[in-house]
Amino acid sequence: MGGGTSSGRAPIPREKILAAYRAGPEAIVSLIQYLQDLHEAELGELRAMIDTLSQQVKQLQEQLHSDSHNSSKPPSSDGPARRPYVKREKSKRKAGGQPGHEGRTLQRIATPDEVVVHRATRCRCGHSLRPQPVEGYTKRQVFEIPRLSLKVTEHQAEIKRCPACGRASQGQFPPEVQRAVQYGANLRSYVIYLKDYALVPYQRLRQLMKDLFGVPLSSATLFAAEQQCARGLKDTVQQIRREIVAAAVGHFDETGLRVQGKVSWLHSASTKTATYYHVHARRGTQAMDAMGVLGAFAGVAVHDGWSSYARYGNLHGLCNAHHLRELTFLWEEGQQRWAQLLARELRRWKRLVDRAKDKGRDHLSAATVRSIEWWYHHFVHMGMRANPPPAISQTPHRGRKKRGKAGSLVDRLWENRAHVLRFVHDFRVPFDNNVAERDLRMMKVQQKISGTFRSWEGAEAFATVRSYISTIRKRGANVIDAIASVFEGKPLLPAAPASC
To answer: What's the CA gap between 420 and 187, in Å, rounded?
Structure first.
């Protein structure tokens, strides 16, 4: 025999075994029971280790097979080797324009700004045509942007002296002319448009302004323009926030944002006609309270199921686009039939609601709703049977045992069943949370382009200006004109359409 056991435990000395033998049967029984208990304890540790390693392998396999079509990963993380996944169902129509579709192309205008006449001076036979009368014209129009140049306007305030009292008086400059030398509202509005809407980084924006206008702007000037715009929007953006608080349906989401090299969070609250952003160092309720929307919000809060949202209000709608991706993963990677069936039915129920809306209806029949609820419960219970709770382990285990992706999804779908089917019961609530996700998508693009905000002042100013720009876009107004109105001291905020 070797000098030790396979588990590394030291062998029992021969003397102890002989001593037990001499002590009688009870000593032998006690020794064997001791060895059995020790063996069971080692087996329990081994089983726990195997469970832990199996869970880790499963998690790594899930990460390996996860991409944007079956998880919440963005498409940019898929990599070039991943085959693009098309969510749209295959259409029976041929590619290209459909019969009856009105094409869009550049159209001739009746009154061009300039007319250039190209005279016919000589025939192909060589004869001069100069004395011949003009019979008509073949016309072609070119749409072009003229070369841009900076226009400098000097404002002069007259100084006059009163003949009666001898006191000197001066004419009043316009409110927007406050310095001896400054940039005008239009130029600053272009800067804010390019930086905070087109997301052009500082250095590229400086080069662009120099190439277009011959204006050598400094980074400090760009930063000052953004801070001035944010200050001018303070009251307007608070009005936008109050409109969202009073809305019947609100969309909420959050995403990571790097400020001063550290991970912070950008929170969004949205409707179809308004957007409000808030930057905070935290992600949870502390940030949501500081944002000042959810605490006073009495409508239906649509979100992705992050646990912090559940602490606000009673009416919630969950994003079913997230559920579809998770169900797709369980079917493709785990061959869980219930997941495929539920995903198919969720899409069918969405089409059912959309058709009812198109017909001008505001609800489904009671029988249809009962049928949807029955089938939903049926498929989720199928998922419960396929993913039973983990067996109670004899080994002490701190905290709740992990359920894995499938078990966690089943638990959420059952516990939040009313929120998942909110779109069926209330036609005001959409199937997904795309309103909020679209509002955050470009903010992630900004981070990819520019990296991090160097200061909290810059991050907060960007959130303020972007709240205004997003709202203006949703209401159909011209963004550059709206930004110019901020620098003129009268921010434009069109009323939200009544239909929304």
So the answer is: 48
d(CA 371, CA 356): 16
Locus of tokens 């926030």: 241
- In angstroms, the CA 117 to CA 121 distance is 12
Name every residue whose Cβ is closer than 8 Å to that of residue 476 and which is 6 or more positions away in sequence. 494
* Partners of 318 in beta bridges: 303
Q: For helices 320-334 and 25-64, give the axis angle rounded to 10 degrees.
A: 120
Contact 384, 414 (CB under 8 A): yes
Residue 90 is predicted with a pLDDT of 63
Could you read off the pLDDT of 88-147 as tens digits, one per residue? 556 667 776 677 777 678 889 999 999 999 999 999 998 998 989 999 999 999 998 888
What's the pLDDT tens digit per position in 395-450?
A: 555 655 667 888 899 999 999 999 999 999 999 999 999 999 999 998 888 888 88
CA distance 477 to 500: 16
Give the CA dihedral 194, 199, 201, 206, nearest 10 degrees.
Answer: -10
Give the CA radius of gyration of the chain.
35
d(CA 2, CA 15): 17
The first and second tokens of residue 131, run together, are 């004395």
Question: Which residues, other chains included, contact 361 with Cβ-Cβ below 8 Å and sequence gap of 6+?
Answer: 427
Strand stretches in 359-403, DSSP E: none
- Assign 3-state DSSP to the chain and report helix, strand, coil percentages, each to 5: 50, 10, 45
Mention every residue, 6+ apart, whose C-beta is less than 8 A from residue 55: 402, 404
